[in-house]
Amino acid sequence: MIVVLLGFAVWAIVSNRHGLAEAVRQMQPWALGVTFVPAVGAMVVSLFVWRELMSDLGFRLPVPAAARIFFISQLGKYVPGSLWSILTQIELSRDHQIPKRTNVTVGALAIAVSITTGLSLGALLLPFAGAETIHRYWWIMLIIPVFLGILHPRILGPALNFGLRLIRREPLPRTPSWPGLSRVAGLQLVVWSMLGLQVWVLLLGLGVPAGRSLAVAIGGYALAYGLGQLAIGLPAGAGVREAALTAALSTVVSPAEALTVALLARGTLTVVDLSMAGLQYVIGVRARWATDADAA
Predict the structure, then answer these.
(1) What is the pTM of this model?
(2) What angle do the packed helices 178-205 and 210-230 form, to 10 degrees?
């Protein structure tokens, strides 16, 4: 499974290699290096989003164990379909006696919280993205209240258990709580801010004024990623995310430069995903070797 996921993630870079190569040539070298700092930071905070959701449902994992499960499973988002990350988490969680229903619930909640906070932050900062972006994406104002209502604990818990009963599964031992969901939402907003900073650094690399582009970068990326997650079936929201981000960034740079930033942002995040997953895989292999050596 890991080999298949790795293949799709590598293909995401290879299939866009010409566009990425051209984008790299247009960018200041310092920006290409600095942009990895907030990208890595965002992925680390994303780990704690997932771990906090798991803890709120009654399974608090040590950080090393959570990191192995989360970072390797992130390669699943590069495979067409929306379930591969969750399926990978189920496989990697077996040693920790986490029920499948809990993994599925955490995976679905992570997506729902990500979309809700991303669209909400994007909507809040839409005025900075220009009239064209507002005209194109005004409808997200209509779906944000729907997601907020679904995530209300008094609705969410019974709805999750009702769904589990329909598929003849046991109810959750614990349902999501207000404090837990509040912490998760706060952490996810940090993730969006750091991913927006990743885009902002790339804009600075094109010579865009810092103050003018910060709100556009953060709001535009949160909006674009949220819309990409709504595009079920597309690997990592391919195409949808770039189109939305390009539209938002076109208020501070030309459309061609906006597309350059969008491609580099995706390429950077893909490299970070591959690096994090590879690191955790190597750590896991070395731990197994050490265990086998001690047993011998």
Answers:
(1) 0.85
(2) 130
